[in-house]
Amino acid sequence: MYDMMNSALVGCIAITSTILIVVAQNAQNLRSPRDLERSVLISSGWWSDDYTKNISLDHCKWPGITCNSGGLVVGISFENCHPYHSLEDLNLHQVRHLIRVRLYDCGVGGIPAQIGALSELTYLNLSTNYLEGELSLSMANLIKLEVLDISFNHISGSIPQEMGNLSRLTYLNLQNNKIGGPIPSTFWQLTTLNTLWLSFNEISGSIPHELGQLSHLTNLDLSSNQFSGQICQIPHELGQLTHLTNLDLSSNQFSGQIPLELGQLSNLLFLDLSVNNLSGQIPPELGQLTHLTHLDLSSNQLVGQIPLELGQLSNLSFLDLSVNYLSGQIPYPSTDAPWSNLLILILRNNRLSGTIPIQIANFLLIRQIDLSGNLIEGQVPVDLGICQNAGFLDINLSHNKISGPIPPSLDLNLLELRHLVRVHLYNWGLGQRIPVQIGALSELTYLNLSCNYLTGELPLSMANLTKLERLDISRNHISGSIPAEMGILSNLTYLNLRNNSISGPIPSTLCQLTSLKDLRLSYNEINGSIPINIGNLTKLDYLCLGSNKITGTIPTSFHKLNHLRILILASNEITSQIPLELGQLSKLSFLFLSDNNFSGQIPYPSTNTSWTNLHKLILCNNRLTGTIPIQIARLPSILQIDLSGNSIEGHIPYELGRGENANLLNVNLSHNNLSGPIPQSLSHLQSLDLSYNALEGPIPLEVRSKFPKASFRNNNIVLDYTNFPLGAHEDQIQTKEKHQFYIKIFLPLALLLVLVGFFILYKLKSNKANPGQPLATEHGDIFKIWNFDGKIAYKDIIEATEDFDIRYCIGTGGYGSVYRAKLPNGRVVALKKLHRLEGENPTYDKCFKNEAKILSQIRHQNIVKLFGYCLHKRCMFLIYDCMERGSLFCVLRDEHEALELDWTKRVNLVKSIAHALSYMHHDCTPPILHRDVSTNNVLLNSKLEARLSDFGTARVLDPDSSNQTQIAGTLGYIAPEVAYTMIVNEKCDVYSFGVIALETISGSHPGEFISSITRRSTVKNIILQDFLDKRLPSPADLRVATDIVRVVSIALACLNPNPKSRPLMKEVAQEFLVNNPSGLSRPLHNLSISELMN
User: Fold this and answer.
1) Each residue of 802-857: pLDDT tens digit?
2) pTM metric for this prediction
3) Is 53 helix (H, G, I), strand (E, B) or coil?
4) Is 795 part of any known ligand binding site?
5) Under 8 Å CB-to-CB from 828, ≥6 apart: which residues?
6) CATH code of residue 891
7) How far is CA 128 from CA 174, 177, 202, 222, in A?
8) How far is residue 77's CA from residue 63's CA, in Å, rounded to a whole number?
9) 138/234 same-domain check
10) Of 225, 259, 288, at which residue does a domain stop?
11) Where do transmembrane segments lie in this chain (predicted)?
12) Which residues are catalytic?
C-alpha cells in the first residue's frame, strides 16, 4: 500500500514537472504587444534598415512614431515620403492602440478594409496621396473619430450611408477626389460637425435638407460638383446654420432663386454661389450679412437691379456680380457704411446703365474695378484713380458707352503714378500718340493699349519699362519701326503689335528677349528678313509674322524653338526652301506658310519627332515641288492639310485617309501636278479637293459618292461610270458586284418603307375622319403626331401658360404674342398666339393660317421647327421649337450679346440663312418665297445658331403667273424693284439676304451704306476693316478673315440694283460650301469695298 502511494506521488511530480517545463518553454516564445508592434513596423518597409536592423534602438524613437507611457504606439505621422509606400503594407490594423494617423504625400494603393479595427482612432489624415478605390465601409466602425481628411486623392465611388455613424466627427474633408453619388441623408446625425468640405468631386443629386440640422457647422464647401436635376435648388434650411462663416456652392448646376433665408447667416464671412443657373433677383436680405468680406454671385442668370442694401456691407473686400443679366444703376455704399475695405469690384458683362457713381472714387484701398461689357454712359469720374493704391489699380471700363475725356487721375502723363503696375485701356478710343512720359512708369508689368486709334511711333522711352511682362498695342495706327531698344525688356513674355502700320525690319535685338513666349507682329508692313538668331527665343510658344512684306529665308535656327506650337508666316514674300529643321519641332500644332514663294520639298517630321500634335498644315499658294511625303499622310492628330496652288507631283499616298481622325480631316490638293489613281482611303475624309491635277483612272465609288463633282474637275479621270475605258475592267466588275449587293440590301428596305408610308397615311386619314379619337397620350410626346385640331395639346398648353398669362409672354408682334411654355414631358416650346381682335381680321387670319400651312410642308435644319398648331376660332396658336436667344435684331443691338456673337458664329449664321433660302427656292416644289427676310425674323437658339422664322407672308411661286402682289416685308429689307413693279420672285429674297449679311458683319443696319453702293466713287474710299463691327476685335485667324471677305463679297452681289444680276440662292449656298476659298490678297485694313464689288 505504501509502495503504491509512493509510486503515485512520483508520477504526479513527474507530470507536474513536465507541464511546468512546457509552460516555461511556451512563455519564452510568447511576445509582448510592444514586440509585436515592432515586428509589424519592420515588415511594412516604411522605415529604412538604419532603424529596423538596429536592435538596441527603441522603435518608439523611430521617425514619425509616438508611443504612450506603456511603450505602445499611439501615433504615426509621415509626410513627403520618397519613394511612396503602399498603405496596405503598413498593417495599421495590427497596431490597435493607434489614436492619431497622419500620412501626407506618402501612400499609394487603396484604403485597407481592416482600418475599421482601429477602434481608438480619433484623428485620421490621409490627404494628398495617390489613394484609389472606394471609401471602406469598415470606416463606419471608427466611432471615436473626430477628424477625417482624405482630400486630394483619387477616391471614387460614393460616400457610404454608414458614415453617419461617426457621431463625434467635427472635421470631414473629402475634397479633390472622384467621389460621385449623392450626399448621404444620414449626415444629419453628425451633430458635432463644424467643417464639411466636399468640393471638386462628382457628387450629384441635390443637397439634403437635413444638413440644416448641423447647428455647429461653420464651414460648408460643396463647390465644383455635379449637383443637378429638375429640382436642384439651394435648400432654404441652410439659413438655419447660424454659425456658418464660409459657404461655397459655386460651379454646380443649382437653379431657382437664391433663398432669402441666407440673409439669416449673420456670422457669414465668405459666400460664393457663382457659376450656377440661379435666376431671379438678388435678395435684399443679403444686405444683413454685415460681417461679409467676400461675395461672388457671378456667372448665373440673375436679373433685376442690384439691391442698394448691399451698400451696407461695410466689411466687404471682394464683390463679383459679373456675367448675369443685372440692370439699372451701379450700386454704391451708403454714407453710414462706406466700402472702405473694398479691394475688388467686378460687375462686367451685365446690362447696367446710368453713369459711374462718384462714390467709387472714394474707395481708398481699391485694386481692381471692372465694369466692362455694360451700357454705362457719361464720363469717367474725375477723381477715379486718386486713392491709396492708385499705383496698383487695374481699371477696365471697355465695351460701354462712356464718352468724354480721360480724367487726369488716369492720364498716362501722370508722372506721380510711378508705382503703377497694370494699365488696361483696351478699346478706349484714345486717338492720340503714346506719351513719351510712359517710360517713367518703371514698375509697370502689364500694359494694354489695344483697339484704340493710337498714332505716331513707339516711343523710345518704353525701353525703360524693364519690369514689363505683357505689352499689347495691337489694332491701332502705329507707324514707324520697332525700336531696337525694346530688346532690353528682358522680362517680356507677351508682345503683340499686330494690325498696325509698322514698317522696317524686325530688330535683331528682339532675339534677346529670352523670356518671350508669344510674339505677334502680323498685319503690318514689316520688311527685311527674319533675324537669323531667332532660335534664341527658346521659350517661344506662339510666333505670328503673317501678312507683312518679309523676304529672305526661314533661318535654320528655328529648330531650337522646341516649345513652338503655332507658327504663322503666311502672306509674305519669303523664298527658298522650307528648312527640314522644322520637322524637329515636336510640339508644333499649327504651321501656316501659305502665300509665299517657297520652293523645294514639303517639310515633314524627322525620325526623332512625329509631329503628333500637328492639327493644321497650310502650305498653299507657293512653288513647292516633289512628292507628298508619306509622313504627312500618317500624322495622328491632323485636321487640315492644304497643299493647293503648288507644283507637287507624284501619286497621292494610300495612307492618306487611314488615320484615327480621318473623318475630321480636310484635304486640299488642288492646282498641282499630281498623277496616278485616286486612293479609296480618301473616302474617310471630311472634305476633299483634287481639282486641277493630272489624276487618272476612275474615281472609287465611295469617294465619288461622298464629295461633290467639283472636287475632281480638270483631271484625266472618269466622272461617268457608264463609260469606263477598257483598262478599267476589274473596277467595272467590283462596281457591278457592289451595285448587286446594294440592290439586294436596299430594295427590300425601300419596299418596306413604302408599305409603312401607306400604313401611316391610312392611319392619318382615319384619325381625320374620327376627330374625337386621341392622337397621343395626354402627357406623352405630343409632337410625334400632328394634333391638327389641337384638342390633345390644348389642356397641357393652357396649364403650362396658366391660360396665356402675361407672365409667360416673351414677345409681342403685329398680330400675335409669343409665349414660353414648359410641357409635362419637359420640352420647352414657344407659342405664337393670334390676338382675339386680330383673329377677326381676315388679313391676319389668312397670314396665320398661311404660316401654319407653309411650315407644315417644309423641314430644314435652318428653318424654325413647327411642332403643331390649333386653328380654333376662339384660340389660334402655333407651336414652335423655343429659340432661347431671341431674334438676331435684338442680339446685334445688345452690347453684351453682340460680343458673344464672334466672327465665326456670324459667318456660320449667314451661311445658315443662305442654306435655308436655297432650300425654299430650289428644293421645294413648287418654290416658296419668304418675302419678309429680316434680322427680326432670324431667331437664335442657345448656341447662337440661326433659324429662319415668320412665314406669315410667304407664298408659293407660280411659274405660270405674273406673281404680282401687294408689298409685304420689313422696311429696309425690301428689294427696290417691288415698289414699282409689284412683282415678287426669288431675287427679292436674295436682296433681303444681302441686307442681313451686311448687317450681321457690321453690327447695324447698313441703310446709308446700301444707298451709296450705286455711287462707286463713294465706296471707293471705304475700307473693309472700317465697315466691320467695332465691338469685336479684328479677326486674327486668316481663315476667318477670308470668310468675312467672302460674306461681304456675296452680300454686295445680292444687293445689285438689277435683279437679273443677283445670284440665285442656290449659287450662294454652293459658294459657302467651298471649304478653302482663295486667300486674301491683302489684309483687311488694305481692302476697299469697291474691290469686293468686282
Assistant:
1) 877 777 777 665 556 788 888 777 778 888 887 654 445 555 566 667 767 777 77
2) 0.48
3) coil
4) no
5) 820, 821, 822, 882
6) 1.10.510.10
7) 11, 10, 18, 19
8) 8
9) yes
10) 288
11) 741-762
12) 932
